[in-house]
TrEMBL record:
Highest taxon above the source species: Eukaryota
Pfam families listed in its UniProt record: Peptidase_S8 (PF00082)
GO BP terms in the entry: proteolysis
Signal peptide extent: 1-18
GO terms of molecular function: serine-type endopeptidase activity
Active site, per annotation: 172 (charge relay system), 207 (charge relay system), 368 (charge relay system)
Protein name: Bacillopeptidase F
Sequence ranges assigned to domain Peptidase S8/S53 in this UniProt record: 163-416
Keyword set, alphabetical order: Hydrolase, Protease, Serine protease, Signal
Length: 443
């Protein structure tokens, strides 16, 4: 028996040094259903993280070295398989924020030819993701500033900063540049559109505009840091669907954009317990950027957190209502790996923000509405505490979050610190308190 296990392991090792074709992909290519795929090579981010020369750098010098070294490492390992793909007349797009290649034009015979290559890689279908959509609500109580900002004690923080100097990167369906709350004064100029190549930011779906309004909209008390600026990448199309290629293109854009964002707001996700975006996120973290993700709208059951929000190296945000209860839809932890998630909660039900016109607003609910409150709060924090690290940001909010009571069902998702601790799988460390995180007097 032991011998048998040993021989299976040995076979596994032998196989891993040759190319592998995912069987599901092969079946679809054979049937003519799919003609593109991802070639995934061994991860390179570990070599970045263990590179002492690179890690000893800081600021701009570190980010330039990071971008160059990522490209060197990725393109070196990719060169031979790329040459073979080109020889097969396949269209090729190389990435570096993750060690992957997009190939287009596959047929059964071309796929088989690629698979014969003697390198360590897998050819598989692209991962896809979609926006954690907002749901329109019938709530109609408008106050300025909006209730979500009041709840997080944002107006008190405005006494010391309105987010001057902070830049937030938005990976979403686009942003409505023509909206009066989002226009020329708050757009920092950088935009990439992998889907439609528009010259300037647009947003047909409206999701990205609603989110960006909450992050920093300048009218009607909707935006948390109204003096912050945004840049954006359309990683999700007009239907709210994104691909591994479009989202990786956005990841690379965020690393090289001018200005480079301090915070990246992501309100999209896929299934749970999936780590395909981990390399891209690690690159952002190494570049000193703070990734914020919504935890998903698959609640209220335990273990309903979505990826990449369930990843250890992001700040994942759940949603609360005006009455301080947890929103029904908000995904709960723990993750498949036993992590407590979300990390924090922020207002996400009945949120008033920008529409797709030039001066229109609507109420929506979703963890997509909670995450931008967190992104905006971090923008205020970083405006006041320049160059603060991810851990400083995380701890400032964790140490000051407001412990809200949760129901028995939510307690049953696990209380890692015991029933006297506030840390739980419905609201993480609690509802964020921006004034307290900025060390203003307590409310
Ligand atoms: C923040 O970092 C930049 C670039 O490394 C540096 O020029 C600046 O002085 C730093 N600011 C503070 C307040 O430490
Ligand atoms: C480590 O980083 C430095 C500085 O970016 C780079 O010149 C060097 O090639 C890197 N070494 C490896 C093994 O990637
Ligand atoms: C409307 O909002 C105000 C200010 O937040 C609050 O005091 C009031 O109770 C709200 N009214 C309703 C009907 O929710
Ligand atoms: C911000 O992130 C949240 C949560 O991931 C998401 O729902 C929202 O759409 C994002 N907003 C933008 C403008 O990207
Ligand atoms: C908290 O846990 C302790 C020890 O497990 C238990 O005795 C106590 O009844 C619990 N309290 C509540 C309010 O559930």
């Amino acid at each position: 028996m032991e011998l048998k296990i040993f021989s299976i392991l040995a076979l596994g090792v032998a196989l891993s040094s040759a190319g592998r074709i995912d069987l599901g992909l092969k079946r679809k290519v054979d049937m003519g259903l799919v003609a593109e795929a991802i070639i995934e090579l061994p991860q390179i981010i570990g070599q970045i993280q263990s590179n002492k020369t690179l890690q000893a750098l800081s600021g701009e010098a570190k980010v330039s070295a990071l971008v160059i070294t990522l490209k060197d490492l990725a393109f070196t390992t990719q060169s031979s398989i790329v040459a073979q793909a080109v020889a097969q007349d396949l269209e090729v797009k190389q990435f570096r924020a993750a060690n992957i290649i997009l190939v287009k034009g596959l047929t059964t015979s071309k796929l088989a030819a690629l698979g014969k290559s003697e390198h360590d890689f897998i050819i598989r279908e692209q991962h896809v993701a979609s926006v954690d959509g907002g749901m329109a609500t019938s709530y109609q109580n408008i106050s300025t500033p909006q209730w979500g900002l009041a709840k997080m004690r944002v107006p008190e923080a405005w006494e010391i900063t309105r987010g001057e100097g902070s830049v937030i990167g938005v990976i979403d369906t686009g942003v409505n540049l023509d909206h009066v709350a989002l226009g020329v004064n708050s757009f920092a100029g950088a935009w990439l559109d992998p889907f439609y190549q528009t010259e300037k930011p647009t947003d047909k779906d409206g999701h990205g505009s609603h989110v960006t309004g909450t992050i920093l909209g300048r009218e009607n008390g909707i935006g948390v840091p109204p003096a912050a600026k945004w840049i954006a990448c359309r990683g999700l199309d007009h239907h709210g669907i994104g691909s591994e290629a479009s989202l990786t293109e956005c990841a690379e854009f965020m690393l090289t954009a001018k200005p480079r964002p301090h915070i990246i707001n992501n309100s999209w996700g896929g299934r749970s317990n999936s780590d395909w975006y981990q390399q891209q996120i690690s690159a952002w973290r190494d570049a000193g950027m703070v990734p914020v993700f919504s935890i998903g709208n698959s609640g209220p059951g335990c273990e309903s957190a979505k990826s990449p929000g369930d990843n250890f190296n992001v700040i994942a945000v759940g949603s609360t209502k005006e009455d301080d209860t947890v929103s029904h839809f908000s995904s709960r932890g723990p993750t498949a790996n036993g992590l407590v998630k979300p990390d924090f909660a922020a207002p996400g039900s009945d949120i008033y923000s920008c529409g797709t016109g030039s001066d229109d607003y609507l109420f929506e609910s979703g963890t997509s509405m909670a995450a931008p409150h967190m992104s905006g709060a971090i923008a205020l924090y970083l405006s006041h505490n320049k160059n603060a690290t991810f851990n400083m940001v995380y701890n400032a909010f964790a140490d000051t979050a407001v412990c809200l009571p949760i129901g028995e069902e939510d307690e049953s998702c696990g209380l890692p610190g015991g029933n006297t601790s506030c840390h739980n799988n419905a609201i993480g460390w609690g509802l964020i308190d921006v004034a307290a995180a900025l060390k203003l007097r307590s409310g």
